[in-house]
Structures are given as C-alpha cells and as structure tokens.
Write a structure and sequence with these properties.
Blueprint: E1 3-6, H1 12-23, H2 32-43, E2 55-58, E3 64-77, E4 80-92, H3 101-110, E5 116-122, H4 124-132, E6 136-137, E7 143-148, H5 151-160, H6 170-182, E8 204-208, H7 210-220, E9 226-228, H8 235-243, E10 250-257, E11 263-271, E12 276-284, H9 289-302, E13 307-311, H10 314-321, E14 326-329, E15 332-337, H11 340-347
Parallel strand pairs: 4-5, 12-13
Antiparallel strand pairs: 1-2, 2-3, 3-4, 3-9, 5-15, 6-15, 7-13, 7-14, 8-10, 10-11, 11-12
Length: 370
C-alpha cells in the first residue's frame, strides 16, 4: 500500500533522480552534486522547523514515486511570530499507476503544523490541487515582469534558449541596438530600449556586498503587515546559494539613495553582459518604487544586459505599469492558511512574498550540478 512519509537522507539519491528526469528534463543519471545538495538543503539546514519537513511518496512496491521539497520560513504578522513553510519541488511519477500521488503529497504538506503554506512556482496542475485543498491563488504575486533594454539582443537571447548557435548573431544585434540607442534623446524611455548609463534623476544606485544588502531587508520591508523575520533567517547562506548560479551571471547587490543620501530601496539581480538579467529581489520604501525601478534598469543598461526579468510584488506594480514593462504569467503564487488574519493580509496585498521570501534563491532553480 502506498504511503507519504518524511524525507530521509537515504532517499536523496532517488529524489535526485526524480528531479533530474522530471524537472531538469535530462536523461543522464543525476550527478552526485545534485544528490548531495538535495540532502543538505532539505535536511541539514539549521532553520528546519519542528514538524515542518519535506515528504516522499512511496508506492506499493516500495519505490519512491513522488516528492515535495519543503523549507521553513519564519515570518511576522503585526509583530506576532508565525511559522511558514515554502513548498518547492512537487513531483509525482507514474500518474497512470497512481494518479492521486501528487494530491496526497500536497495534502500532507498543507496539513502540517505550519501557520502558512506557500509556493511561488505552482504550475496549472499544482494550482488546481491547491485550490481543491482550500488554497488561494494570489494573482498580483503571480506574474513575471520583463523589461527589454536592447531589442535585437533580447530577441536573439530568447531564441538561443532553444537554438544556442543563434548567439553567433550577437555582434550584428549589438550594432543594431547601438544605432537605436544613440537615436534616443536624454530622458527618452521607450518600451523596447533604454539609454546606456543614464542617471536616474530621483535616486542613484551604488553597489554593495551581500551583507550590506541583508542589512537593508528589515528596513525596506517594515511597511508590510506580513513579512519574513529576517533576523531569524540564514541570510548569508541563502545569498551564497543565490550567487552560486554561474550561468545566470554575477549576483549584483545595490542600494538606492536620494541625492541627499537617504536610502529609498535596494535590488539584487544576476547580471551577465548580453544576456537577460534575472532579478532576485526589489525593495522600495512607500512611494519610491518608481525611482528604484529606474535605477535598476539604468544599472542593467550600463552593464550591457539586453533585458531584465523578475517576479512581481503588488507594492511595485503601480510603478511598473508606467515603466514600459511587459507581464507574463509563468507560475502561480499560492497560499494555504487557516488563520483569517493571515489570509486577509495575503488577499489585501499586505504581505511580502517571492524572492528571498520564497524559493527562487535556491540553487535548485537555475543552478548547475555537473
């Protein structure tokens, strides 16, 4: 008879094989580095919550046929400490033999001791399972945003995702983009192009290290009723994991200040010249989101990126709508909570979620293990 039980160290190799085949879409055996990372990430981290654990599904032959990766996230709601659990990799193999394996895994997860269950990477199938278990989809947290900086380079970079040799056309694209950018007048911000290194009028960005960025998180998220308890999180390890994804480029941390030196925001993103930068986190004080976004785009243009891509937050959405961004539904942010106060904060966009308050910092998303 099939069962769901907590993930154990001896399960890591089988879970890595599932991850390699189902999520990485690779036929080669899972590398030892992936097995080790999965074991350490889900079992050896000091922030594991009491009773909050990753789960495996074992079929009636004793084979591990499913997995849900879980890590604890300490949070605060109006000063009250909460235990949140982030649902990462949800996998279920052999649907023809046991079509309910995924549903059993997810139900066992949301029935755990945590106050809040959350995922920012739910696909359409997973989102339906969440809603059947009385979970809630959060539309304004569920969009990816895209900003084009060099249009020809951006188009080639998108196409190269399927046909890598197309990057040989990069020099021609760079020449076209250079002509287009030189045609812009100062202050001109079009949908598909931004001037290189144009200074923001309301604020300017200066690069800082990961420790400096971590020190700003509490200050710049204080306006949210529901937010991470940053002091209780292993931020040094999380930011080191986020940085250990060389294919995405170097992880850049910046502080945004007004001309008189007041801190108005911060951002962290992966920057690699000629590529589309992946934004990990954008933070802004109330009323300053526009200036922070302008500083981010200017910084990316100066570093030679052809575009940016990140995850929305409702607090940034109004400023984003006036700044030549496109929005793409890629995955849903979904939550489950029994406390009405928690659900109210989530439904009224008073919560700080996604990025570091989620799972996109993990090496399991975009990392290399070869």
């Amino acid at each position: 008879m099939s069962l769901v039980r907590p993930f154990e160290a001896a399960d890591a190799e089988a879970v890595a094989s599932l991850f390699q085949r189902m999520l990485r879409k690779l036929r080669a055996p899972a590398p030892a580095a992936l097995t080790a990372y999965i074991r350490d990430f889900y079992l050896e981290t000091p922030e594991r919550g009491d009773g909050i654990a990753s789960l495996v599904h074992v079929d009636d032959t004793g084979r591990i046929s499913g997995f849900v990766g879980v890590h604890a996230l300490p949070m605060i709601l109006d000063g009250r400490p909460l235990r949140a659990a982030v649902c990462g990799s949800l996998m279920a193999d052999g649907r023809d033999r046991d079509p309910m394996a995924g549903a059993r895994l997810l139900k066992a997860f949301v029935d755990g001791p945590q106050d809040l269950s959350f995922s920012e990477t739910a696909n359409a199938v997973s989102a339906r399972l969440w809603t059947r278990l009385r979970g809630v989809v959060l539309p304004q947290y569920s969009l990816d945003w895209v900003r084009v900086i060099r249009p020809a380079g951006f188009a080639i970079e998108l196409a190269a995702g399927r046909a890598g040799p197309l990057r040989l056309l990069k020099p021609a694209a760079a020449a076209f983009d250079g002509l287009l950018r030189r045609s812009l007048k100062p202050g001109d911000r079009r949908w598909a192009v931004a001037r290189e290194g144009e200074p923001a009028k309301a604020a300017h960005a200066s690069e800082i290290d990961s420790a400096g960025f971590a020190s700003l998180l509490e200050l710049l998220s204080a306006q949210f009723a529901l937010r991470p308890a940053w002091r209780d999180m292993p931020l040094e390890r999380m930011l080191a994991d986020a940085a250990a994804r060389p294919d995405l480029g170097a992880l850049v941390f910046s502080r945004v200040e007004t001309p008189n030196g007041a801190v108005t925001g911060a951002f962290a993103y992966h920057a690699r010249a000629g590529r589309i930068g992946r934004v990990l986190q954008v933070l802004a004080r109330p009323g300053q989101a526009g200036a922070v976004m302008d500083s981010l785009v200017d910084d990316a243009a100066r570093r030679g990126l052809c575009g940016l891509r990140g995850r929305t937050q409702p607090a940034l959405l109004e400023a984003m709508l006036t700044r030549k961004l496109a929005f793409v539904p890629v995955a849903s942010s979904v939550v489950h909570a029994r406390d009405a106060g928690i659900l109210h904060a989530l439904k009224t966009q008073q919560a700080f979620l996604n990025g570091l308050a989620g799972e996109n910092w993990s090496r399991l998303i975009g990392g290399r293990f070869d």
